[in-house]
Design brief:
Length: 266
């Protein structure tokens, strides 16, 4: 008996109205995401992958089709979904701990302030930055701010963690460190993660499956790739795996093929 995916994208399409007329950004996007999976949506800039994530989060609505959770269509935000954006988006007048505590207050308003702060400290500890709990965001590096954003999202205790290119603004060494942090946290709590990225190596390192998007307009799911590397996963092991180069080439060829198609259509 086949298990049903708790999160489904069912014929998801999105049309934007522009001064030059309607533009179909997404067309008939179909995908299934299972409990405890780490899925990366991968594609060129402008392919609509962040729009897909925004619709899953309930921040935008699909023009046709939509998002189905446990057999029920959802069109609004919900506490079962938490988002980490490209920029940290922290409240600058609150400390790192208070930013996380505010998320805890939003889901548990009867909890005492002491309880919220204790829980916030534990989430900061989970992502390895409890030593900066009393610092304001502007006193922190961009990478540390993004760790606070991750802790804040986890503090919501969501069922689905949605990540919109959370490391794209960081230098390569900081990005590698935060990828390791994210993977360690995911291995600890096994939230269902949907992450948007345009970084092939990041996707192969983190994900169980890749959803590869064709180029826009009218982007769709072009291919779904199961990532074979064993877990728990470490970067050196992935890079040394005999299959790594082949999977990297497969994704690159997909992206190059659809970029050529998009150029030809234009």
């Amino acid at each position: 008996m086949m298990r049903r995916a708790p999160l489904e994208l069912s014929g998801l399409s999105k049309t934007f109205l522009t001064p030059d007329g309607p533009v179909v950004a997404l067309e008939n996007v179909q995908a299934e995401i299972y409990d405890g999976e780490f899925v990366c949506i991968l594609g060129h800039s402008g392919c609509g992958k962040s729009t897909v994530l925004s619709i899953i989060a309930g921040l935008q609505q699909a023009t046709l089709g939509g998002v189905v959770i446990d057999g029920r269509e959802v069109t609004e935000t919900g506490s079962d979904r938490a988002v980490v954006f490209q920029a940290p988006a922290l409240l600058p007048w609150l400390t790192a701990r208070d930013n996380v505590a505010l998320a805890i207050w939003s889901r548990s308003r009867r909890a005492s302030r002491r309880s919220r702060l204790e829980q916030a400290t534990r989430y900061l500890e989970l992502v390895g930055i409890d030593d900066v709990a009393g610092e304001l965001p502007l006193q922190l590096s961009l990478g540390t701010q993004q760790c606070v954003s991750l802790a804040r999202a986890l503090a919501m205790e969501p069922r689905f963690l949605l990540l919109d290119e959370p490391f794209s603004m960081l230098d390569s060494m900081t990005r590698f460190a935060l990828q390791d942090t994210l993977l360690r946290v995911w291995e600890t709590n096994r939230k269902t993660v949907v992450m948007v990225t345009h970084d092939i190596d990041e996707a192969l390192y983190l994900a169980d499956r890749l959803i590869l998007m064709t180029d826009g307009p009218s982007s769709r799911v072009g291919e779904v790739v199961a990532v074979p590397f064993a877990r728990p996963r470490r970067r050196a092991d992935v890079l040394a795996d005999a299959d790594h180069l082949g999977y990297r080439r497969r994704v690159m060829e997909f992206l190059e093929h659809h970029a050529r198609q998009s150029t030809s259509a234009a």
